[in-house]
Specification:
With 87 residues, this protein is mainly beta. The chain contains 1 helix and 9 strands; from the N terminus they run E-E-E-E-E-H-E-E-E-E. The protein has one helix at 51-56, and strands at residues 5-8, 23-26, 32-33, 39-40, 47-48, 58-59, 62-63, 72-74, 82-84. The chain is globular.
Length: 87
Amino acid sequence: MCSIWVVRSPGGQPEGSLGVPAVTTCRHCGAEWGGMHTSHCTSCHETFDGIASFDQHRNRGRCAEPGELSALALLPRAYRCWGLGSC
């Protein structure tokens, strides 16, 4: 079974060593993100700041467009990431 995630740290250091945050990449869409609680949907390939915001976009096993949900806002991060509330 092939993993859809690639986790690496800048400079080739082991994941999370020396206080350097690991970067995770989706092999299917190429999205990159960091953070212990960040979630990436393998269906719509949107990225969320945690499980609560991820759950907001799922309804009966389907993805809702995050931008159409009033509870979610695009966060000011180096990568595209949705979160609960206003920024």
